[in-house]
Structures
1.
Amino acid sequence: MADSKISDLPLLTETEIEDLLPIVDDSEANVSLKTKKISVGNLFASPGSIGGITPSTGRFTSLTLPSGSTIDEFSTDETLSGDSDTAVPTEKAVKAYVDGASFSGVDDDDTLGGGTPSHVNAPTQYAAKTYVDIAIDTLATDTTSYVNAAIDAATLAGTSGTSGSSGTSGLSFSWAGIWDSTAYYVLNNIVTNDNDSYIAIQDHQSTPNTEPGVGVDWETYWNLSSASGTSGSSGTSGSSGTSGINGTSGTSGSSGSSGTSATLATLGLITNEPTGFPNRTDSTISFDDITQTLTISGTFTYYIWGVAYNVTTPKASIVAGQGMNFFYLDNTQNLQTTTMHDETVLLRDNAYVAAVYWDSTSQTHIYLGDERHTIWWDWNLHYQQHETVGTRYESGLGLTDATAFTIAEKIYNADDVLWTLSVIANNAADFVPSTSQNHTTGGSRSLDFTAGADNDVAQFYRGSNITLSQYTHLEGWIYATSWGGNVNDTIRFYGYNTGTTSVVGVSVSLRDYANPATLNSWQKFSIPLADMNLDGETIDAIRIELDGGGAPNGFLDDIRFDGDFASSDSALEFGVSSGVIWDEDLKHTIPEVLKGETKFAVLYRTGEDGNWTHDGTSSILFKNIPAGRVAYNEETVSGWQQTEVGDEKFTLVHVFATNDMEFPVIGIQGQAESDTIEDARALAQSEVTSIITGDLPFKELIVIATLIIYTSEEITNSYKASYAYLDSGASETWQDFRTFRGSSVGGASTTNHGNLSGLSDDDHPQYFNTSRGDSRYIKLSSRQGGISLLNSGDSTAIIIFDIEEPNTDYKISAEMINQVDFPPQGRSWVIYDKQTTGFSVYFDPAPETNNYIFDWFIARA
């Protein structure tokens, strides 16, 4: 059955309930007849298909469009694999196809096709829009073969991927301002210098060598970050205007720009600076006694007048002779030696390295002083400090483990004036010094009581109180010529106090401590003070009393309160704690010396020239005569020598800290002998002063301490010596001189005399008081004197007599007077180097003005 044409359909004149859709018949010329209608009735009543629709089944056979295109299928194929021109995909199929589609990347040539083969679904950029190919097209030059024009980024973007790992942190820089020659800089510090900026490439301490852009080593420590730009050219000058009336004065203008900087070497020619060493860590100093050579080694830099000299090979030079030798580096990088301490040579024109004292007799150096001074002080300041201030103490350096002993208190031997003998009862002639017998080694007399009788009483008077807490026994020697057989025939000893006229403790019988049967020979007795009830008691006299009808007759000698002694050599050893001293600008840290370490050198003088030497290192700081007692360093008319200290006498040893690189702690031997411990105490400071201001070959040292040495044949160690306490209270083992001569460091001091301890102690027997009689002193006469004018800064004065004295046993009285300023500044002075033609005086501190005079006179008996 043939298909019915749409033109055969009834006209759409009115809408009926059964109408399905209107259809336009373009073949109809009459406009009013163009619109037809398809209704249920005519659709299914049609004998054939209408427009490709089969009425009997209600299905499309095909649908022909006015353009001639035919549609014969509504496709559900989600892959669109049929590639058909007659099938229309459903909405679901299109969505599924698009959701599953993949794109091959964006063509970023900004051309549309351009003859390059494209791909289906390939996005392409064109004119700031994105297109997707729907077919392979090598000739497309417009958008006809593309769909979805201007797809936005969100449409093309896929889901977000996993976050990547964090990137490496960037560099961090810190601003440190203008470069500072004293600062410490760390990596990535930024500074400016001379209008340029620099970044630190390593941590370092600023020195002239590291100054950015200037120092010889600056590129080792800095990178140039940005350089200052050049100044722009000046603008064209404007024409001069008409002069106006004078106005008021304006404010001062800003300072002009800085002139061109001078180089370090140029400044060096003007100032002779800097000269010296930036540090002492890059170089080492050594000395060889065999070759007599000093060597400085290492890779180091030194300066002379601002010029840097870089040294990579050792420099050496030999000594020039006996005594002090001074070594310096010159501007040819050679090490030189001189025996003259010339400040212009050593400190101004060259780099001072070391000082060596060479002992040509022993072929040994006894001193190696470090003199590598810094470049921070100018040479003139170095010299001024060397001459006026010298070495100074900062901290530490106390004596450790030093052991002192209580020295016996001698009461009587007839050869020495000790405690005063007097007869209290009966005949004074019953107790007299006699040459018939003596016990004292080297002595000639003893106390004779051969004519003694019952109830005779003798007294030994000290002249001042003594507290017996330090002692344990009263001991002595008796030579009995007879001794009665009765137990009451004896000699009694007891303590006495003359101030209260009373017996102290109880009396004891010598018969209990000596053998009465031993006649005509010396025997020792020792009486415990506990038996006399004198433990810790205070007395000023000891009395002896003959008792019984057969009281003994004979001689007494060497009566004393016994002390204690160093029984072994190790008891003479001590240590020194670590500490710091300053040699001008050089800080010397001195390591600890432990007790028993052989790190002490004892210096002494020898021969007619008084050259200094030592015997090597030891753990004990004094010398002794072989197989004899300890010695002192005596100056005689023929020169300096070692002299044995007399039995039961005293001498000193002084401990110093130095800049010596090998023996930083030394001892200097005492130069005198003292009869009593009081004399030794009084001598300590004057002897130290004499050594310091005398002929010491070097000034780079400070005195730490002085010890008093007691020597006796009764002491069993190899030196026959012990250290003695400095005070009567047995608490001071050594005299502390660390802050002597106004050191910059010191502890709190007592300014009120009344706050001092020990004011009641009568420990200065060399002075007169109401208890001691005039018989101990001599009257003075035959005096001469004078006045010496002092200049500001004078630390010493030499006094010359008008008349030469026969010997040096004269007494000196003096006064330092300020003629202008009142009250004057406090002054102290020390008399030393007494000669028959005069003496020398040392002032500490030196006068600060020219207003002082020194008024003196001398006298003798």
2.
Amino acid sequence: MEKINIMKIKNIYKGMILATTLIIGMWMSGCKKGTLDGIKPTGTPTTTNFWKTADDAQQAANGLYDLQSNDEDMYGRGFFWFIDASDDMVVGRTSADRENIKNFVCTGNEQSIYAPWSAHFEVMKRANDIIANVPGINMDQATKNFILGQAYFIHATMHLEIADLYGSATQGAPVQNRANPLAFPLQLPSVKDNYAYIIADLKKAASLLPYLNQLATTDYGRAHKTAAWAYLAKAYLHAKDYPNAEKYADSVILSGKHALLPNYADVFKIANNYSSEYIWSVASSQYGESILPGAMLENKGWGLYNGFGYFQPTKELVDEFEPGDKRLAATILKKGDTFQYFGQTYTYPIGGVSNSLTGYQFNKYMEPFSYAGGIHVSTNGNEPSTDLNVPLLRYAEVILIKAEAEIMQGKSGDAEINMIRQRAGLAPVSGATMVNLKHERRVELAGEWSDRNFDLVRWGDAQAVYAKPLHGSDGSIVWPARNFVPARDNVWPIPPNDIQISQGQLKQNAGW
């Protein structure tokens, strides 16, 4: 196996599909295309010249990671706009599309909705092509299993995000039919059916994947067994199957493969990209991939780097931290805090000037910008990726998934919650309830891909929380109260373009 070099993967996969793209492009010329129409598999045009060798299979596996690490549309900014809808942050800069998402008045036509939607389905298509074609290739069985395990895992993670965003009890999210891959992807009857599909894929992935420590270090960043178990725990939690959420969280915990780092701030350092706390992250580098650290940096970066100035933390989030919580300084930069920036020590905000609407900035992903000479950040400020792998699901969240599952079953989650609190320098709690659990998830995972907005939705708290305005560090209102209607806003609008292209096969979510 070769190291995940995203720039190389892009070239490999581009070459792999070039001939097919030309053929399909001519076939579809003059026709209107939508995302789901475009995810039809490569089909007969490629079966004659691809899916023949072990190298073909490996190239296809590499292609699974390309769009996931796309600098913009998925784990750059695109997918994070749904998380920005929460009470933890504001947009930060004038941007009508992003403000419409935060205010729950979007249409689905916004590029910030359509782009991550499209990217998710393209990745799932690539995974399904592997699942359909790699079993027939004559190659080493262990390598074949690893490639298939990656495909099942990646499909499941993409599917879970789509299900959480677009699926409800009365209408599930669309998914490609593996038994009839040429058919238009259709919505499942209920999101419960999406979760069942996801769970089956993750179990298959876990059966095929090795542990992380069984991989060559050059393969770090690819799917592995405990990541599949961790996402099983998360999928079961979202499906409200708490016994199985606890079971698979325990599979990770009892594997002995993971541990909390002693110092919370160290989780977000380049040297710890693949530490004991790592479960799954965006494999990134200064040459491309996730731009989230740069997107969160002060707009124009005080003249030293082209930060984008988005996703600014609110006073509500800052006030959620208890006195003495070590996580606050690691998570938020506030007035008077000192920090390293391009080899120098500064006080926030530099020169007493900031264009942050809230007076705060996320500090979690600032380590790459601390080094003199910018040795860990992209030289292209318009694509501000860094050498820091941005976590998607880490061991601390697995512990909190177990705690939540226990509490929801009437069991004690004290041991797990206190593991998290001890590292933060806080006193233990006794008889923890969901109030404690919600607090710990918020402060432990602030500014991460754990999706605070979806947490509030699944807990039934979103309407009440969003009925309150959001404040800046000086106490002024920086974002007005919002009208969140659960019957509509618990899910997001299906892009209307794809509904039109489907000729009525796709149905819009209720109320949109």
3.
Amino acid sequence: MSVRKLRLSLVAGAIVSAAGTALAQSAPVVPPPDQPLEEIVVTAKRLDTARINIEPSIGASTYTITQRAIETIPGGANNSLNQVILQAPGVDQDTLDNSGLHVRNEHLNVQYRINDVILPDGVSFFGQTLSPRFVGSMKLITGALPAEYGLRTAGIVDIQSRSGLSEPGGDISLYGGSYGTFNPSIDYGGSADGYTFFASVDYLDTDRGVEPPTTSNPIHDHSEQTHGFFYLDKIISDSSRVSAMIGTFTSQFQIPNNPGQPTFGGISAINGTPATAFNSANLNEHQTEGSQFGVLSYLYAGQDLDFQASAFTKFSDLHYHPDQLGDLAFNGVSQNAGRTSFVNGFQGEGTYHLTDDHTVRFGVLVTGEHITSDTTSLVLPQIGADVAGDPIFGTRTRSLISDAEKTGWNYGAYLQDEWKILPTVTINFGGRFDVVNGYTEGNQVSPRINIVWQATPSTTVHAGYASYFTPPPLELVANQSLIPFQKTSAAPASTVNSAIKNEHAQYLDIGASQDVLPGLTIGLDLYYKYARNLLDEGQFGAPVILTPFNYNVGYNRGVELTTTYRSGNFSYYGNLAIAEQKAEGINSAQFSFDPADLLYASGHLINTDHSQRMTASAGMSYLSDGTLYSVDILAGTGLRTTNPGDNINEGTVPSYEQVNLGLSHQFDYLLGGPTKVRFDVINLLDEQYLIRSSTGIGVFASQYAPARSFYAGVSRSF
């Protein structure tokens, strides 16, 4: 067994063992002799409230997705976390891997928090570290963020985990259907002797692990994925609690094939095999990804002072395994590429109620990350050129080794005051100071101010300004020499490789929400961002790993309309966003781009490849006699592409509308206990649309949405 598999097995075993111990202790639920169960519940709720109030999103644009909302959408908790977040306004649909979310047209730059503790980025592409199964509630926070949010600022996904105290018992589920999908899961929670725990494990086996480059049935697209999450806390007094979280994710993905592709120009044979002997439908590329994280926290909630101190760690790794000669035949290079990230950090945050009108908040963050990058490239030497000047390559392979490692540090601190200047007006002002020392070095003082005005009992207006400082993800920065690749089949189009830079941005946001009728709320939000050294990322070449680069300047602007309605057993949501992101001048990692594109972008504002002009999402559900009927819709004008004769990213792929249906019913007494059955139809109208093309900047392969798919499941509560 490899060291990697042994490490993953030990982590998974520890989670299962801990969960098993907790399960054994959980029945019956017995409160401590000196503290009734009712007091434990009250204390736990008060501590939860104190923890959440340490990090309020005052003045920011916040969209909440509850556990009930997750179960309502077609597919329920069997969806990926990204598919759930697509319910929120201003979230563009992209390929539903780790890079598949564009909040307000930004690329990545999203921060995840669990129980108000930051989860470091780590390395991944296809896989998602988190599953929605452990989510109790989730908020997408965006706009002009208060000072407690830094580094990753396009959006904050703030997750509060499920609790065994409020949801004792568990569920075992089996779900599957189209593309050979098999998706069992189990979760269980409870409390005993002041301890509260929750555990969740799921496994996915499918023949559609990655969005394929064709509309037909995917070729070579199998995937296996496992998620595990365990939470444990202990109330040690009426004002304090300690808690621990452990999470694990393992996966492997076949890279889907695109038949009929031409071989790389100038290659006639490879190690005695004619280039014509290679068939792109028979390639055997695959990628493995994994991560494990742990968090230990102490929470104190006093009369005037609340604070939480947390230590966290995360290890993640990614390894792309090429089809050794096949990759070389079609791409001109075959790269066996691996990356690892090991992050440790401390996060301390608190709230002090200074007076009735002033609440002071403060915090510090320190993280250290060690990354490794190991790449072995198989290339062919250039031996000449044809009459047109195009290169001709030799027939014997050459290996080029490019390894690197780096330790980087981030330091941050913030201070802000929530001032209730009038009974209906609150001003939250302050700032944060961040320092980065890795592949980039820099620091910035970032002022923030937000104003919230409760104009009437049914009308709320907010406005805010934020200065942002965003360093590139340390684990993704490419820092390899280009010299060894010159005069080979992997020679870059450009030899310029300026260093990656930190992004500096100014952000304005203003919005309002109005309760129009009982249960009906309408919201409107406008925003504008101007950035220097705007960060973007692209997938260049065959290894499916993102590489960051900068635009010299960029701006992002848009407007969002949201509606929600709930009356009895009927609920509805609808979102519409109109937005654009444009940028000029690529000023880092230029070797990844065509020289003609570099020249055009140097003097023109161009659309970023992930910029979508219109994005819409909507959903309805109705519960009747234990049967839940649901429908949701995703629509958009399409991501950017470069059509023949157009300038860079001037066109778009065709617009799309995807309709999904869900039907579920709970039998309360079937088989001796509550049993739920569900049936889901994904892409009801069978619109097999193109999510993204292979012609935009930073885009390597076309990818299509799924065809009409059918899934069914059964879950049993115990």
4.
Amino acid sequence: MAIVAGVDFGTLSVRVSVVDSERGVLGAATAEYPLHRKREDPEYATQSHDDHMRALAAATREAVKNADVRGDQVEAIALDTTGSSVVSVDKNMKPLGEYYLWCDHRAKGEAAEITEVAHREKLEAIEWCGGVYSSEWGFSKLLHWLRHNPEKRSEFASAFEHCDMVAATLCGITDPKKVKRSICAMGHKWMWNRALGGLPPEEFLVKVDPLLAGVREKLDGVYATSEEIAGTLSPYWAEQLGLKAGIPIPVGAFDAHWDAIGAGCRTDDMVNVIGTSTCIIGITPSPNLVPGVCGVVQGSVHPKRTGIEAGLSAVGDIFNAIATRAGSDVQTLSKGLESYRAGQTGLLRMTWDNGDRTVLVNPNLRGMTLGWNLQSTAQDELFAAIEGTALHTRVIFERMAERGVEVKRVINGGGIPQKNDVLNQVYANVLGCPVLVPSKSVVSLGSAIFAFVAAGAFKTVEEAQDKIGSPFKTFQPQKTEKAIYDELYALYRKLYFAFGEPGRGTFAEVLPKLIKVAEDRNKATA
């Protein structure tokens, strides 16, 4: 028997679960931290490292208390985080500013430059991240930071993903060169590929911008999968968390990837990790490169297999925004949605409120709702938004299938599916296949699984999944509803590419032009 702590850093809060290898979750707690936004710049989203660490300490102490165990009984702690959330540091690992959070899209210009140079220079690594580099990813954000913080460039020693930064902090590591970097994070977001020599070459980076000179060397170090140990808990942070010093901390990963493991993901499964956004995470036996799909990385989800990642840039965020505009909340606005049927609202919702992550990889898009009439309600729009996220997911699955990615099971994981049967049934009807949903929350369970492996309680990820995983509730597609969604999907797909794919025609110019007009006006009045 062993007891471990599994940690999941989400967009707005951190959850810590204390888990027993025989009895499962003994206790859990969450603590919130602020997300810094600017109304005049909707692309802006940052968070503070100090806020994260304070919340982690508070949640860990509360979780241990709720579990009714002693802190010195916890044998390992493992952490996943949002990604790509990037922070620049000095030579002592001190942050030089706040994290560019995953949903910060200020670097869309830098992303376009990286994509253009990558194709011009025939950089093979760009094909492993779907052919388009994203504003959500590491090099884009780092280049934006370097361009906009000239006074701090002399102090810049390196940059880290949140999962690596928090593990290094807990281990007391103060030298950037001694930090182990997550292959999950660096493979999916920084074009790291062992078979291609690691990071993109110096010559390529300098052609993007001379400001990137020397960055490759500063990002160098040990790159590892999550069965390896990042270090051990330092005395200082052991006291802050209420745990014992010296317990192992495995190399971290992204929340969605470990949430997929916690949800029971095996080879040829695809997990929709549905929260503020959706990450679509799968394990595939062989690397199939899929245009527009943002990462195929050996060892990223499961240390011994190939991980594949896609997703939607906003889901729960959209539901919350609709409810907020209506002066309500999602729980209240959702009452009665179980009586809604496919097509009854007459609305078709393009869920691009925060851009498109997959398959267009286009941040210059915004949400659209077609079909309004004078009787349309906020509740109608909420249901249409649920349908829209499912239809968008079907676009992604269709693209994967075209490139030979086999999907044997679809699992809805993340924070929303356990609380929203309407969403799960819509997904089954839209996708035309059974959708499995863990019967209990699996948030931070993936972290606990890797903590157990680090502690030696289980020899493999699969052994831990079998022992502490959750049974599934199954949502079967309904024949009549599926037929209507097949009709709606044909319309959705036409709109998706007509308005979303650059170069498709006049419709593709509409949303980027609206964004530019608004940006110019905001700059003029700032």
